[in-house]
Amino acid sequence: MAQYDNAYKLLFSHGEMVQDLLQGFVPEEWVTHLDFSTLEKVNGHYVSEDLLNRADDVVWRLRLRDEWIYIYVLLEFQSRTDRWMALRLMTYTGLLYQDLIASGQVGAGQPLPPIFPVVIYNGEPRWSAAQDVAELIAAPLGSLAAYRPRMRYFLLDEKRLAEQGLPSDDNLVAGLVRLESSQSPQDMRAMISRLRQRLQAPHYDSLRRAFTVWIRRIILTKLASKDEHIPDTRTLEEIDTMLAERVEQWAETWKREGLEAGRKIGLEEGLKEGLKEGLHQGQAKLLARQIERRFGPLTPAHQQQLANADEAQLEAWADAVLTAQSVEELFSAH
To answer: How far apart (Å, rounded) are the C-alpha atoms in residues 135 and 137?
Structure first.
């Protein structure tokens, strides 16, 4: 998970990503008044009173009319929803405010600046945690309700964004979501081509390198078999070339192994109906090999699922094996 987090942090350490995040995904009036020419990354390392470091997230600031606003981006890439996210963010926000006071950025008599907390989540289950810390606290009786704390965060649930529709192809965060949710290597190549066009200007050099690292570490490892070596690509052009070569290699390997497995079993069956059944069994055996290459040995329960699956289900799993992040995610595909 650390590799995943670091690759994402590298991307969101670029102002262009933060600008496209706010302009493309936050449909609120105050965003139109932001001065993105003042966007600057600030220290994201805060130390609480018990000396526990907080260095997991990305913090930016920019001018909103005549005042600073801080953008706190928390990247959440666990396999399940964190029920206590609102409480975590209230704590992190408090640490940020303490740091601003201790460093003299907020002087005596000055109000604290506004903070906009954003959670970016890419898990498969729909995010179900409370988005306001008040929802985590038992409803107080009577006038006690006035003392219940409130703090809300903005959620970017990647998988649901892909289902609902995204901003234009020029939006870098939308491009990232499309790459994450793409269903085939061919789709990925098309999106990488659009990304290259978007980032061709020289001032995007650092962001191009960040996308190259992210694609290599996150996207390509989903496509490759478990023991397959991914070359050390340094540019988006090299990524595109390597992906083109590997797509043909993967397709040819699957075709060859599928034909060999189907032919072997089909010949044993002898007749046309037997050949059809043999091809089906061959497809199941081939799919089992591909799954084990990525995720290791199958459990007896998963082997039984493969044996009982019809052709449509096998095809769905064959499509998902390139992009699934776990065996459980793969066998939930329909």
So the answer is: 6
